[in-house]
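yo, PB1 domain, RWP-RK domain protein is done. seq:
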Amino acid sequence: MSFRWICGKHVSKPNLSIEAHGSSMISSSTKELGDSIETLNPIPKPPQARSASPEKNVAKVSQDIRTVTVKATYKDDMIKFQFSLSSGLLELKQEVARSFLLENTRLHLKYRDEDDDLILLACDADLSILIMPYSATTGGNNTIKLMVQIADD
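structure:
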């Protein structure tokens, strides 16, 4: 006989075989500690989950995605677009290259830090340092300004 915690109660159970049918199951006893026969029932979906349309679920997910506005300057041109805080440097470079029609060109992206130094974005860690202050805020000026240069090498 083994002892287990079920819903905050200490219950003794003889050897028991449980079969799972479906993806989410809960266990409920049919007899109070007697034979300890268990049946499995699917977890019912909450009423709001059953009635919500897929479009509403998609809209809610898209609202949860945090973004910043990126302004990128190349020569005399500037582009502006929304960028997800969960994306990496590769995605950022691809969006900038696509917007400036520089897809097959190696680019350097740089920004000015709080000391007015020009900082090269060389890896995802550099990008994380840049966007870290924007990750913690919900409002205000969430704009990142970048300078785009064609890599010499």
